[in-house]
Amino acid sequence: MAAGEPGPSGGYDFRFLPQKSFPSLSSPEIVSRLRQWSMLGRIAARAFGFDQTFQAHRRDEFLMDFFKDPNVIPNLKLLSDSSGQWITLGTEVKTIEAINVPCTQLSMSFFNRLYDEDIVRHSGHIVKCLDSFYDPFLIADELRKVLLMEDSEKYEVFSQPEREEFLFCLFKHFCLGGTLCQYEDVLNPYLETTKLIYKDLVSVRKNPQTKKIQITSSVFKVTAYDSAGMCYPSTKNHEQTFSYFIVDPIKRHVHVLYHSYGVGEMS
Fold this sequence. Notes:
Largest sheet: 7 strands, antiparallel
Shape: globular
Helix content: 10-25%
Order of helices and strands: EHHEHEEEHEEHHHHEEEEEE
Mean pLDDT: 93
Structural class: alpha+beta
Number of helices: 8
Distance between the termini: 53 Å
Number of strands: 13
Low-confidence stretches: 1-8
Strand content: 25-35%
């Protein structure tokens, strides 16, 4: 059997890659920010390898095989809604919902318009506004208006396709944080954290013909259901509870970025 051909079962086989680290998530500076944003201890990245060519049209089969793989089951961790402890799934996945997340952005200049539109001052300070609530988030500055309030005049600064970009999704998740998030007064910590984690998760290569850098990863936002309903990334739906699968078809790696909304570690 040639390498990369389907096994006897025809499905994908996976292996856990514990040695694959995500330095951004463990750097002291980012750990300190995640603590401030109430995300520490609730966000995790894990890497798995797979054994045959990834084909986009077989995406659902790929994900179903992933959730059923005996090498994945003990190593795919999530936070228990009841105990708040990291646990394994412990239930049989019946269906998968995967949303394609465009991933084309190669530069943080994508966010420069925040300065041009008076959302962030040139000093880097985020412009404050009168407090309002967009359940469950407090909106205390123009940045959160851009992220959340569709009826604000600044919402149009990013188009709908731009908002779907993986880079934008990550940025928004870090800006909104967890239950006891203490917001930043300046933009840079959000930009820098987004950039470093994005670089850790997404694979790029130089196109041999054009010599341009291009992203080779495919990104999916994944939800799994068992016979009782939604079981992963949580049994409760929340904008800030998510799991992204970032597939590198060349290295045959899949990175899983997971976060569960709640109260992060304080000390």
